[in-house]
Design a protein that fits this description.
homodimer, 406 residues, Arc Repressor Mutant, subunit A, Nucleotidyltransferase, domain 5, 3 domains, 6-stranded mixed β-sheet, 5-stranded mixed β-sheet
Chain lengths: 406, 406
């Protein structure tokens, strides 16, 4: 079954109204009716439910052209909070956002490393409890927790399926384990998909634009938003940009494919290539350890941006390879906009942006019909965790519409 | 703007009801209400409109459990006909279908070759007139004409944008020219997209399945159907499978990209490779002329299927390359089903099917979450023309929902 959340379905209408109040509020019921095309009774019913749950509140009145003045509606940003957790080998980021998507708390701690899933789950549970208290969120207003990690995942089951850098997590029932430990709703999702939702919300991208978020963390993925809804694919594993082949005769990948983008362009591959030229990079003091991968890549990125010849060549090659894969994505989906995000884009994002823009200008198949906007995320490191928190809130705003809580 | 036809919108509901009557009819209004989730008044209104236009008719009554017997509805297959034309360099195929998708007429003639667009337009107009008369379609019941060709196209403008094998057609206003000549509604669309719609209709694929049609004509393309609707992309140029790179260092392509699948795996590339081994293929009597490309490829395909060593190696390489690109498509879209179609699949389709199945089983990223069904079209040569005729009828059944007539 293709899982794709439609805006026209019942819960979708509620989400649409919340979106409108959030982006265009304070706004009247009449304006909502005009903007959505829904019937007046539908809008009134949905607004009544939203006021009952506290997500929306009435705020004063606007003068009307004749007739009685209209009551205006606004989002009650502090009615609910979502907590998003980005689970990585090297680091774990926790973020809390309010209903408007504003970040109200953030914490960065050491990653899962080689600890067992049971150990990490216990740590996540304790981190979550402490974080909620430290940020000062009333327990009743926390809608839940979303943990995002590199794919593949079983979205429905809340299970990570052999994530590349967290291999001992294979089939571990993370969602169930965290739910039991915390007694709050838990979502497990893909980091790139969460980042796409985060960017979509925070940028207020038009619902009529098709949009992809190219995400570089440990691996490389893409979140795809079509007509204002996350496109998940049949098993919630769409957008595996890191596992498209850029060389049919290339190196075999753990995923079963050959010549995967990730094996050449992701931080680990770039740092391994740097290891072979370490003499030219001695000034950078790279660690070349699994624990220093992110720092090493940041160092190389910084040197590249400052014009260090060897570092620039290595980062530029990664950027060119991702650009080539992005042309593939664009030629298959014919999209309007690409946003680059993820920790891997945090330092040298400008080089990646330029490489991808240039390649699309030269090689995108439908470039004569339209151009594709390429932007860098305003917050590349945290966008997946922020998106995760948004996923939690989406589930609250439109139950059954966003990702299912189980 | 992402053009994607939603089934929940107004005209979409009408299309949904037509689909249900077509696939599950004779069927009562009550059953339609239950199956669609639409309100009873909506269903009654839509059915009334469909009866008025003659697309649907009442046919007897079914006994009801208590209460008055229910009137049953069925499609009036001969209410409307659509004409689909596949425009190619070597051949032009005309097909007429009724509302049920049944083929009521077919004609195969010489292709556009190197004639000017004006000449070909005049020929198409005359072919269309003669065809409608020869098949015996009453003028009033012909809903219109759809011409499909390899992309890129401007769907809204009805213009072919520099199609690779019809390069002098660049920017020629085909839709407008044919409409003026014939005074019937004209659609211009991509052949792979039309084939996907044709396969989707004729196979009665579930609306919840995501589905791609991998199409090999002169080039290679893919039509993508998500949630029961053709996914067109921002400029109706989604699914350009032939222009995804399978070798970043590969040959430059006219499209601006490098190492495009088409340059290695499409019929022309395979026949060019055969030319280099002509001594081993002398028994096949290949023509090696632009006009004989399709026949040469069919000959090679036939020899490959019969086990001719050199031919098999050439066709197998093409199949393996398309399989590799299909893994890319699957990893980005996480789809449920792939159907192979197009003249290039007509003879050696079984070899392509096997190669793609095998690669997906080994290399599809989410294969542990679900498998992907791979089928060969029942009618690989005509499926784009049949799909084109379906596009015409879709526009009639749900105005504003299917491709717009202008």
């Amino acid at each position: 079954m293709a899982r794709r959340e439609s805006i026209q379905s019942g819960p979708g209408s509620q989400a649409l109204i919340v979106d409108l109040i959030r982006s265009a509020g304070p706004i009247s019921r009449t304006e909502l009716t005009q903007a959505t095309g829904l019937t007046q009774p539908s809008v009134s019913n949905i607004v009544r439910r939203l006021i009952e749950t506290g997500l929306v509140r009435e705020t004063g009145r606007a003068a009307s052209q004749g007739g009685k003045p209209r009551t205006l509606l606004e989002i009650n940003a502090s009615a609910k909070y979502g907590v998003g957790v980005q689970l990585g080998f090297e680091s774990i980021t926790l973020v809390a956002t309010d209903v408007r998507g504003g970040v109200v708390g953030r914490q960065l701690v050491n990653g899962a490393g080689s600890a067992t899933p049971d150990e990490v789950t216990a740590r996540l549970a304790s981190l979550y409890r402490d974080f909620v208290v430290a940020v000062g969120l009333p327990a009743a207003s926390v809608a839940g927790l979303a943990v995002v990690a590199p794919g593949p995942i079983s979205h429905a089951g809340g299970v990570l399926l052999a994530p590349p850098t967290l291999s001992q997590w294979d089939d571990f029932p993370l969602k169930q384990a965290l739910q039991s430990a915390l007694d709050v709703p838990v979502i497990v999702d893909n980091d790139a998909a969460a980042a796409a939702i985060g960017e979509f919300w925070s940028r207020q991208v038009s619902r009529t634009e098709s949009f992809a978020c190219v995400y570089m963390g440990t691996g490389i993925g893409a979140g795809i938003v079509l007509d204002g809804a996350l496109y998940r694919g049949s098993s919630s594993n769409a957008g595996e940009l890191g596992h498209i082949s850029i060389d049919a005769q290339g190196v075999p990948c753990h995923c079963g494919n050959r010549g995967c983008l990730e094996r050449y362009a992701a931080p680990e591959a770039v740092v391994l290539a740097a290891l072979e030229e370490r003499d030219a990079l001695v000034s950078l003091e790279l660690g070349f350890e699994p624990e220093s991968l992110g720092r090493d890549f940041d160092q190389l990125s910084r040197a590249a941006v400052s014009g260090h010849e060897t570092a620039l060549r290595l980062i530029q090659r990664s950027a060119d390879q991702i650009a080539s894969a992005t042309v593939t994505l664009a030629n298959l989906l014919d999209i309007d906009r690409i946003v680059l995000a993820g920790p891997g884009m945090a330092v040298a994002g400008s080089l990646y942006t330029r490489a991808i823009r240039g390649r699309l200008d030269r090689s995108f198949f439908a470039r004569r019909a339209h151009s594709i906007a390429v932007d860098l995320s305003a917050n590349p490191r945290d966008t997946a965790a922020i998106g995760a928190a948004s996923l939690v809130l989406q589930g609250t705003i439109a139950p059954g519409h966003g990702p299912a809580f189980g």
